Amino acid sequence: xxxxxxxxxxxxxxxxxxxxxxxxxxxxxxxxxxxxxxxxxxxxxxxxxxxxxxxxxxxxxxxxxxxxxxxxxxxxxxxxxxxxxxxxxxxxxxxxxxxxxxxxxxxxxxxxxxxxxxxxxxxxxxxxxxxxxxxxxxxxxxxxxxxxxxxxxxxxxxxxxxxxxxxxxxxxxxxxxxxxxxxxxxxxxxxxxxxxxxxxxxxxxxxxxxxxxxxxxxxxxxxxxxxxxxxxxxxxxxxxxxxxxxxxxxxxxxxxxxxxxxxxxxxxxxxxxxxxxxxxxxxxxxxxxxxxxxxxxxxxxxxxxxxxxxxxxxxxxxxxxxxxxxxxxxxxxxxxxxxxxxxxxxxxxxxxxxxxxxxxxxxxxxxxxxxxxxxxxxxxxxxxxxxxxxxxxxxxxxxxxxxxxxxxxxxxxxxxxxxxxxxxxxxxxxxxxxxxxxxxxxxxxxxxxxxxxxxxxxxxxxxxxxxxxxxxxxxxxxxxxxxxxxxxxxxxxxxxxxxxxxxxxxxxxxxxxxxxxxxxxxxxxxxxxxxxxxxxxxxxxxxxxxxxxxxxxxxxxxxxxxxxxxxxxxxxxxxxxxxxxxxxxxxxxxxxxxxxxxxxxxxxxxxxxxxxxxxxxxxxxxxxxxxxxxxxxxxx
Length: 636
What we know:
By secondary structure, the protein is α+β, with helices and mostly antiparallel strands. 35% of the residues lie in helices and 20% in strands.
């Protein structure tokens, strides 16, 4: 038997490991099962190139609990270790066997499937164990098994063992403060969380299933009554993982149903099917595979953003992918797997890592290309799904310049009449009719089809197209488009009278003289509260509404932008201000000016103003009740 000290630079390495190595103690199981997988995949590679003269077979990793003995076992049938290799790989903490293997067999590349980066992985066992044993036998002919034992101090023992089959068994003597890891439910939870898609089958207990070779017979008794014998059951290993998840396969191997089945496997509590998927598969300049799904979206930007799972060679790393995946795509679901992503580092490190930045840029481009392809292949279907995916696309256009440029090919601009245009199609459609006298293209839109219906109808009466843009970030996006596209402006249909929104050369002449307009202005300002409405007299068509309430585009948009982050500081706290546009060519406005009775004049102004407020949804509570009562009195 050998005794010695582990080659560490500080005496108290184990307390440091227990306290600081990982933020979650539960990570130890991920590390140990990953090491077992690593050892198994090494053997697979060595047998495939003829360096291991053994049968690879169908190895499993087994995790089992000995609750009475307060032990947790992790057993593999992999490459195993000699006593000398245990001394080398286990006692020299800074040395990673996986990294050395990768260096030796670097030509194997990603096909060997080695996880690597596990220099300290084994020692995470001491976060939950007061003593750890390793019993291992190498695959090499003529080697003896060895047992290594350490109680969490730098001292260890190394002696021969009677193990006869190749592979390694790790035995954790669970500490008193970690007995939760002796509970079957806890271990199952951790294996499902971290090792659900590991490439080697993981056995955790057994289960009963129907015997596939047994066909229950149906017999008749003497009275002719049929009875069927019970289905025979058999006990089989309970394999807790899926070693061959969909993202590890080529897209050509998968049908649409396979992608949907994998989505249900990842998200068993999601009852709606995904709208479509994007299969990521790249091996240069970095390795990356994965599948992203577009679920049905809501307009709420504060929805949960931890649905994409990040893996390193099928080992779960995190589901907090902000900074790794472009922010606008964190609303998607799915999985990303890359051996180029470090396994045991902080998210801030990941965000600064050069490979991670390349991965983020690639994903952005790949998603844009896929959206363009879906649009080109089946535009009708893409239009049907637009409302369910637009929040992601608009957010991407706003936050990623490269995505913004590519989005011209598939981003849609729906109208209130249910038509859909790309930007170029919209430009070509409206440029002749909606360019104002200064040569600027005015893109009209409504954010609420019902609330702005009368304004929309006034615009359509002039042959204008009105878009329906109702997402919470549309104000930000319009601001970006106005600064990026040449000589355009967006205007909500209720931002001003339609003739002012798109000013042409043919200015209408007022029926009222300048003196009459001045008198009318004084009458209105006396009757209408100046803190709520700014009165402006306009010459319009005689059949246009006498009073129209508008809200200035700039101020309203800045308030909206500040409400969702951005805009001009302080705008969000400013009171709502509206313009009251008074049509000087309206017959009713003429009657207000010429009536001899003050009371009637006030009633006409109040009724006209309330009708205008009603059209904007501004009449509520007592004021609405008074308006209804007054309206009934007028028709008696």
